[in-house]
Amino acid sequence: MTRVVCQQLDPPVGDPAQCRALALEACAAAGALGADVCVLPELVTSGYVFASGDEAAAAALRADAPELAAWGRALGRPGGVVVGGFCERGSDGHLYDSAAVVGAGGVLAVYRKLHLWDREQLVFAAGGAPPPVVATPAGRIAPLVCYDLEFPELVRSVALRGAELLAVPTSWPLVERPAGERPPEVLAAMVGARTNRVAIACCDRRGVERGQAFTAGTAIVDEQGWVVAEAGSATTACADLDLSRSRDKAIGPRNDAFADRRPEHYVGLLDR
Fold first, then answer.
1. pTM (predicted TM-score)
2. Contact 142/167 with Cβ under 8 angstroms?
């Protein structure tokens, strides 16, 4: 079994030192819970609601920054992995809304968010490469970031490449929903998990930042599409997942989520 811990934090924009300290504390706390995989929110090292591109640039980190490598050491779990969001200063001079996959020895991979939401487009450049599927001792992990999860083509693509767990740092703005319903983003995760038979761990943030309320919708979804852990108003969601089940795409004795595909009839998806 793989223990997945999502740490639903409230990183304060404008105080990157406090944000980074909060992330380290969360990694250590997840390690104390026995986490094999710890997921942190989107832009956890900086906060989310930037007043300007200059403010974002002042909080940005390089992909090889020691602050990111420190996550793996703070987790303190041999073979453990941390996936968290950060404001990346690219070598090309652009800023990216990125996610780092970090092991005990340092950063294993960095993914730049492909689909930018609303005012993110005023600060960040969109990524230009698909999410990596990273082979780790904890399993084959693919990072996505927030709005990426709304695109079923992207979720399907990483599942087809062998991902066993999608780790999704998020900052979901609070939206209205009918009483008793889960956040719509969690519903998207449930559908993506079920249609691809792959586990998905979404780590949201909480609180209100510069007038923007966040959903606090952190949820861990198993490969059948069921929510097995939620943080609610608390900090932590924790679940033990059998990621080998994400490799089995069978649906009963006669059907298979991937073998039953008819891609020759899906050509419209490739039209631009």
1. 0.97
2. yes
The per-residue pLDDT for range 242-254, each reduced to its tens digit, is: 999 999 999 999 9
User: Distance between CA 75 and CA 68 in Å, rounded?
Assistant: 12
C-beta separation of 104 from 72 below 8 A: yes
Instruction: Band the pLDDT of 265: cuts 50, 70, 90.
Output: confident
E strands within the chain?
2-7, 37-39, 81-89, 95-103, 106-112, 134-136, 139-143, 165-169, 199-203, 208-209, 212-213, 219-221, 227-230, 236-241, 250-251, 255-256
* Through-space distance between the first and last CA atoms of the chain, rounded to whole angstroms: 42
Rg (CA), the chain: 18
Cβ proximity of 164 and 139 under 8 Å: yes
**What are the tokens at 123?**
């600060």
pLDDT band at 270 (very low <50, low <70, confident <90, very high): low
Alpha carbon distance 142, 167 (integer Å): 6
Task: Render pLDDT for 60-107 as a digit per residue (tens, 0 to 9).
Answer: 999 999 999 999 999 999 999 999 999 999 999 999 999 999 999 999
Q: Which structure tokens are listed for 227?
A: 């929510």
C-alpha distances in Å from residue 183, one per residue of 53, 179, 204, 240: 29, 10, 11, 23
Residue 215: exposed, middle, or buried by beta-carbon count in 10 A (0-12, 13-18, 19+)?
buried
Residue pair 153/269 in contact by the 8 Å Cβ criterion: yes
| Eight-state DSSP code of residue 129 | S
